[in-house]
Amino acid sequence: MANRNIAIIDAQAACLTLINVYDVEPEKQAELTRALSEATESAIRHQPGFLSVCIHGSLDGRKVVNYAQWASKEHFENFMKQPGTQEQLKRFATLAKNVAPGLYEVSAVHAEPRTAARTATR
Questions:
Q1: Among candidates 76, 71, 37, which has minimal Cα distance to 53?
Q2: Among 102, 112, 113, 106, which residue's Cα sits nearest to residue 10?
Q3: Mean pLDDT in residue range 8-25
Q4: Are 57 and 17 in contact (CB under 8 A)?
Q5: Model-level pTM?
């Protein structure tokens, strides 16, 4: 089986979650998801306290959701102070009609238990 990146959402973990909802024109959705993914791979994931980023594109092409986890609020705030972070965020915003960011903590997780055999078939 190929190596896969897996994000873990755990209500017991003391981490910070950033959820950015971008409203986009359908012809801009792929460009924004690509820009978010490339920035994450090249720079963001190397920042102290980074845990994961999941990028979702809506089926109608009109939204992109960026779900990011950081080890703590302090780690996230330090990332926001890094040179280049604000420029990246402005670039992402130019691809969207509207951006609605919010900071969260995980309150609860409800999921089907996974077994090794079941996970391997997905």
A1: 37
A2: 106
A3: 91
A4: no
A5: 0.85
Q: What is the 3-state secondary structure (H, E, C) of the chain?
A: CCCCCCCCCCCCCCCEEEEEEEECCHHHHHHHHHHHHHHHHHCHHHCCCEEEEEEEECCCCCEEEEEEEECCHHHHHHHHHCCCHHHHHHHHHHCCCEEEEEEECCCCCCCCCCCHHHHHCC
Asked if 75 and 17 touch (Cβ cutoff 8 Å), the reply is no
| Cβ neighbours of residue 50 closer than 8 Å, sequence gap 6 or more | 44, 70, 71, 75, 79
- By residue count, the chain amounts to 122
**70 CB-near residues (< 8 Å, 6+ apart):** 15, 16, 17, 18, 49, 50, 51, 76, 79
| pLDDT surpasses 80 at 108 | yes
* Per-residue pLDDT reduced to its tens digit, 43-91: 999 999 999 999 999 999 999 999 999 999 999 999 999 888 999 999 9
Place of tokens 């280049």: 84
